Q: What sequence folds into this?
């Protein structure tokens, strides 16, 4: 333990976010076994992915953003404005991205465009998570209890990243994308956490100021993708399995977030 605490804070943030990235990659690797799954099960898993994204938007993004603003002693009106504007901006980003992608030949078909939007949303979601881990390690200042809290934050985000890697890769596989390609896209969505974590450790004060905006923006993007892509696609493939999947995915993510703090 003393060895890890003695490492430079940026190195600690790098190692912590490498762990969270590997958990994302592990979740994305589920697609290599999806060939054994029935179409109904894949559809249910897509519903699970939607439930996970909706729960993560609230428990992992909006609530932490509200808590950080409250800790900074911001007023109720300012907190409400930051969360609302950031959330709406995230949703608008997805709508605008869909419009722009529709003009590219490679994304002319709806399923390719939907896959790209899911990737964008999950990648955006992982950036503030990486920032949060980096800020936690960058703010240690030799405090052992703070170090344990930072480690637990990284472990919690890592555990949550397993189903989030699945969120990107399984819907792509369900749309006919080859397993190796779905895995590469899914794991890459978590790779941004490494760079964001190091940046957060280096620029603690600056990142702390913009983190609530980034968190609420990502929440809006994830809700927009869930409502416009994952849920409609799942319901079209089987209403019962999709709805049960959404409920199960939300419950799992809520359990993990509450349990891991």
A:
């Amino acid at each position: 333990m003393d060895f890890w605490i003695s490492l430079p804070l940026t190195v600690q943030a790098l190692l912590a976010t490498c762990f969270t990235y590997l958990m994302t990659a592990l979740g994305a690797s589920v697609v290599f076994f999806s060939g054994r799954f029935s179409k109904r099960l894949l559809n249910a898993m897509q519903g699970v992915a939607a439930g996970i994204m909706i729960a993560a938007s609230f428990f992992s993004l909006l609530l932490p953003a509200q808590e950080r603003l409250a800790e900074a002693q911001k007023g109720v009106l300012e907190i409400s404005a930051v969360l609302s504007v950031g959330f709406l901006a995230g949703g608008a980003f997805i709508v605008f991205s869909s419009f722009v992608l529709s003009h590219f030949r490679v994304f002319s078909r709806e399923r390719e465009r939907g896959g790209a939007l899911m990737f964008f949303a999950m990648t955006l979601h992982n950036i503030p998570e990486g920032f949060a881990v980096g800020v936690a390690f960058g703010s240690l200042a030799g405090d052992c209890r703070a170090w344990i809290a930072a480690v637990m934050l990284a472990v919690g985000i890592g555990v949550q990243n397993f189903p989030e890697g699945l969120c990107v890769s399984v819907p792509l596989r369900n749309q006919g994308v080859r397993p190796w390609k779905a895995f590469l896209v899914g794991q890459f969505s978590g790779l941004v956490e490494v760079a964001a974590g190091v940046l957060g450790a280096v620029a603690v004060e600056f990142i702390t100021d913009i983190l609530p905006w980034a968190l609420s923006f990502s929440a809006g993007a994830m809700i927009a993708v869930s409502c416009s892509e994952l849920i409609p696609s799942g319901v079209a493939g089987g209403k019962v399995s999709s709805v049960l999947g959404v409920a199960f995915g939300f419950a799992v993510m809520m359990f993990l977030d509450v349990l891991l703090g």
In short: The CA atoms of residues 29 and 115 lie 17 Å apart. Residues 204-237 form the longest helix (34 residues). The radius of gyration is 18 Å.
